[in-house]
Amino acid sequence: MRVAVSTGGGDAPGLNAVIRAVVLGSLNRGWEVLGIRRGFGGLLGDARVVEMNRDAVRGITHRGGTILGTTNRGNPFRWPTLLTDGTWVEEDRSPELISTFGALGIDALVAVGGDGTLRIVRALCERGLPIVGVPKTIDNDVAGTDYTFGFDTAVQTATEALDKLHSTAESHERVMVVEVMGRTAGWIALTAGLAGGADVILLPEIPFDIDKVCNKVREREAMGRHFSIVVAAEGATPRDGESVFQDGAAPGGDARLGGIGARVADAIAVRTGKETRSITLGHLQRGGSPTTRDRLLGLRFGAAAVRAVATKNFGVMIALDGVDMKEISLDAVEGEPRLVSLDSETLLAAREIGVTLGD
Questions:
Q1: Domain extents for the chain?
Q2: Residues 6+ apart with CB under 8 A from 66
Q3: Which of 3, 121, 133, 140 could form a disulfide with 151 if both were Cys (CB 3.0 to 4.6 A apart)?
């Protein structure tokens, strides 16, 4: 049996734990293991395929990132290609990928990635490739699984940042607006914001009224609390407004959310007269050593993927259901992402203690 493992999409703490579990679980069954570099790019000449042995995964569980490398522009069905005239076009290189897969004698692939990678996996499975998917994202928004590894570390990083910002905000009597990742889901903003003592939390799931946000700042001012902490998810949108995107996009990539924190900070300063600053945590949330929870989740996801390969149960995604790892159809990933429910216990707790959600 020859098994391959790949990591695609944005990096997340815990990826190396998954790789280690897949490699050791496979080797302990007497299988060969290959590592595909840079997502699916290693099968398309963009990188390379390497042999994975015990030495390759020794001491990597605590390391952030991925030893195999990754990319969020590696869709073989829409591969970005630069023409001689300097323009970019998208090509379907999936037949080439399938051919290379067979030429390398790969019997099964464990593909680790977010919803974009998993949609690619589903399409490749429909074309006959034996693949098991493992969900990965710091955003915690992959449908079908209760949690994804990387989320806990991202929340810890954001919470620590909020802890530090409290002291400088209070010292200067400022409003601090902190923009966090999450795409169209508010899991990081809600969890870190509540744990980090934010006064306002803006989520993509709840369009906000900037006047309600400013009223909270004025209310605290009247109570003698001359500073406020606002957490804004990158996908948060004002009522009757639109999402804010960064300028430009890389070839073959989608537009990137970003900038709502600065917009909110400017609006607060104009409406309240308070000195206001904004900070975007950005890729800090992706980096660093994974927390204990993310290390354990990564190892469990990887081990469960090997068990699925052993039973030749392909076309599935490993999912955390309560405390158990389960194999579910990749069809479950299709459709809407997993968003914060408006009756979420965490969201209700935020409301109970007086956090303003902008509505």
A1: 2-149+290-322, 155-286+341-352
A2: 7, 11, 15, 16, 19
A3: 140
